[in-house]
Design a protein that fits this description.
Strand content: under 5%
Oligomer: single chain
Distance between the termini: 8 Å
Helix content: over 70%
Shape: flat
Mean pLDDT: 91
Radius of gyration: 15 Å
Low-confidence stretches: none
Largest sheet: none
Structural class: mainly alpha
C-alpha cells in the first residue's frame, strides 16, 4: 500500500473525531474540547494534503468525505443513540461500495 493511502486512512479516522469534538466544544465555549477540535481538524487536513500529492484531490477528498460520513453516522449511533434502520444500512453500504469502486478504478488493489 502506498504511503499516501495510509495518510488518507488516518485522515478518514480523524474526520468524525473532529466533528464529535466540535459538538462537544459547544461552539468553542469549552476551551479543552475547542483545542482538541482545532488540533484534530488541522491534522486531518494536513494528512489529506499529503495524500492529495499522490492520489489527487478529487479522489482523495471524495474518499475522505465518504468514510468521514460513515464515521459520523456510526458515532451518532454509538454516542448519541441515533436509531439504526435498514435504510441507513443500505446507504452506508452504497458509500462503502463507492469508495471500493473508486479505489479499484484508480489502478490499485484494495
Amino acid at each position: 500500500m502506498d504511503i499516501a493511502w495510509i495518510y488518507l486512512i488516518a485522515a478518514c479516522i480523524l474526520e468524525p473525531i473532529w466533528v464529535i469534538c466540535l459538538e462537544r466544544s459547544d461552539n468553542f465555549k469549552k476551551l479543552g474540547w475547542g483545542i482538541v477540535t482545532l488540533v484534530t481538524v488541522l491534522s486531518c487536513l494536513y494528512l489529506l494534503s499529503l495524500a492529495v500529492l499522490s492520489i489527487g484531490p478529487g479522489m482523495a477528498y471524495s474518499i475522505l468525505a465518504g468514510i468521514g460520513s460513515i464515521g459520523a453516522v456510526v458515532a451518532g449511533i454509538i454516542l448519541y443513540k441515533d436509531p439504526m434502520n435498514k435504510k441507513k444500512i443500505l446507504y452506508i453500504s452504497l458509500i462503502i461500495i463507492g469508495v471500493i469502486g473508486v479505489r479499484l478504478t484508480s489502478g490499485g488493489m484494495l
